[in-house]
UniProtKB/TrEMBL annotation:
The keyword Transcription applies. Adds poly(A) tail to the 3' end of many RNAs, which usually targets these RNAs for decay. Plays a significant role in the global control of gene expression, through influencing the rate of transcript degradation, and in the general RNA quality control. Residues 428-439 have a biased composition (Basic residues). It catalyses: RNA(n) + ATP = RNA(n)-3'-adenine ribonucleotide + diphosphate. This is Poly(A) polymerase I. The lineage of its organism: Bacteria, Pseudomonadati, Pseudomonadota, Betaproteobacteria, Burkholderiales. Keywords: ATP-binding, mRNA processing, Nucleotide-binding, Nucleotidyltransferase, RNA-binding, Transcription, Transferase. Residues 54-179 form the Poly A polymerase head domain. Belongs to the tRNA nucleotidyltransferase/poly(A) polymerase family. One of its GO terms (molecular function) is poly(A) RNA polymerase activity. The gene is pcnB. Its EC number is 2.7.7.19. Residues 320-436 form the Polymerase A arginine-rich C-terminal domain.
Amino acid sequence: MIKKFIRKILGVKDQRDPTEPVVLGAAEHGIDPKLLSSNAIRVTSTLQDAGFKAFVVGGAVRDLLLGVKPKDFDIATNATPEEVKKLFRRAFIIGRRFQIVHVMFGQDLLEVTTFRGAGPANAPKDEHGRVLRDNTFGPQHEDAMRRDFTINAMYYNPATQEVLDYHGGIADIRDKTLRIIGQPEARYREDPVRMLRVVRFAAKLQFTIEPSTREPIPVMAPLIDNVPAARVFDEMLKLLMSGHALACLQQLRKEGLHHGLLPLLDVVLEQPIGMKFVTLALESTDNRVKAGKGVSPGFLFASLLWHQVVEKWTAYRAAGESPIPALHLAADDVLESQTEQLALQRRIASDMRDIWSMQPRFERRNGKTPYKLLEHPRFRAGYDFLLLRCASGEIEMELGEWWTAFYEGDPNEREQLVATANAAPSGAKRKRAPRRAPRNKTGAAASESTTSEE
Ligand code: ATP
Ligand code: MG
């Protein structure tokens, strides 16, 4: 109803001709030109001065229409990658499946993409219908058709301040609807990662997933298994680092989409014991992202998978292994079970291992042991992780408090702390300290670690 009404006001026909965009002027779309980066304007105007078409496209237009300052700007043009490269001093052609040009101005990176043709029908595919390479160029309306969602298929020309809308994206933005372009099943088959993108955008933007966009997902989710693990990892990282990770995971669960999308999600969302821990970890990550601070993927994945590690660690100990080797075996199992679908880069996996394997070492507070641990290059991350375990109620607060005092203490205080820890009857350490106000402290601390990590 509302959509029809808006379409009527905007003069959008219900039966749109997908080759002809609706063109909206500044007064109609209301984009504030101040939200545009000067480098985005530099790229579009350079291309236009050279006789090419050039627009800001995709997520940036969506964010501009929502009144949000885009975090990055993608540019679409009819110039080929080689033609683009010639126009800028620092420009690099990258990508295989999808060739694009990176244009750099200092630290600022802009992605410039040549309009893609409707191609998928002829593009090379795997046996499940997933498009393997897609570098056929084509007219702008075909480029719009190949984009994923209506709200991601709009083009903004900074020179004229016009928005070109090919698929009713403006109406969907106003209606807070996430709608895939074209036939949903076909689009998920071409690229199953779009199913993860649905969830990310719905949660991040707090949009409703339009029913025919949502319906095929539970059935088609297993197709994600055939996507190269590195790509799934990239998309998963975007989801987790969107500043709305917790909302994304809750949304996945609410939509019943967490089954079979990724083993990681099954693990995280199916275990009520781990949920408190994961919730705290994600809350802290989201706050950090929103505050514009860096986030360490190692810390994040270590948190998400911790309870699976604990479960296996307990099992190995019950089978007679001593604690530290048991933990290593558990870590190996968990990392192995994930990497089939999620290519955890080696550096990230090694950060995860470091964080996990430090945990039993925090229990040892005699002699030189705590001093040695303090010198561990990943100490800060391991310590933040420990605080998270305390805050979630997994272990006693006392241990975290002791380590905070030790970490912050001067040499005398440290000596004292080691002496008291050693003097305390072992039973005293086991007693559960009252759970009080750990959240903020842990949240802030967990975030700290991430800076030192990056
Ligand atoms: P964000 O703000 O998170 O970067 P975004 O929409 O810009 O969101 P990107 O991954 O940067 O997301 O992609 C840029 C644009 O490229 C999208 O807006 C969309 O038009 C198009 N796109 C990206 N991935 C796909 C895909 N898998 N299938 C079709 N179109 C895609
Ligand atoms: Mg983007």
